[in-house]
Write a structure and sequence with these properties.
It is a single chain. The protein is mainly beta. The protein contains one helix and eight strands; from the N terminus they run ββββββαββ. The longest helix has 4 residues. It is elongated and about 85 Å long.
Length: about 170
């Protein structure tokens, strides 16, 4: 379900538009081992390991624009992610009719963590080692001239383990 429009109490309409995109990513990995008794004289068991990697392929939507009166907000995305994610919001532009009012540019840190992943089958996929973090928001005026920026800092980005690793932080997350 996607929000299509909002009609205000004074009958002004705000409309939302979306673009479709496809995404394929590893969402989980699970392992089972089954031991069955055998008829061996030594009383040993037969061991049958099995594993499963769940790969999801989805078609989804990303907000492309918001229209209200003679104004619109346009959302642009990067598609060059290395972490199996599909889109990174890169620009938000505000227009009155066709005149640019302002633009916000989003800059990301691409973090690669080369820690070994416990599951050797997952470690063959380099995408699980990449993560993206918002680094800056650059503000531009109606002439598309840089005005200022907001910067973001994170603690110990290099210590965040690869995606789908079995590591946990103090609170049981990652």
């Amino acid at each position: 379900w996607y929000l299509k429009e909002i009609i205000t109490p004074n009958n002004q309409k705000i409309s939302f538009a979306y673009n479709s995109f496809q995404q394929s990513f590893i969402s989980s990995a699970s392992y089972n081992e089954t031991y069955t008794s055998s008829c061996y004289s030594d009383g040993s068991f037969d061991r049958n390991p099995s594993s499963c990697r769940s790969i999801n392929q989805t078609t989804s939507k990303a907000l492309s624009s918001i229209y209200f009166g003679n104004n619109k907000i346009v959302f642009d995305y990067r598609t060059d992610r290395k972490d199996e994610g599909s889109l990174l919001l890169s620009n938000i532009s505000v227009y009155n009719n066709t005149k640019l009012i302002k633009r916000e540019e989003l800059i990301y840190d691409e973090i690669y963590n080369n820690q070994k992943v416990q599951d050797s089958r997952l470690s063959l996929n380099p995408s699980i080692h990449y993560r993206y973090f918002l680094k800056e928001i650059n503000n531009y005026d109606s002439s598309n001239i840089f005005q200022n920026k907001f910067s973001f800092d994170y603690y110990n980005l290099s210590s965040i383990p690869p995606r789908l690793s079995w590591n946990k932080d103090l609170y049981g997350y990652y």
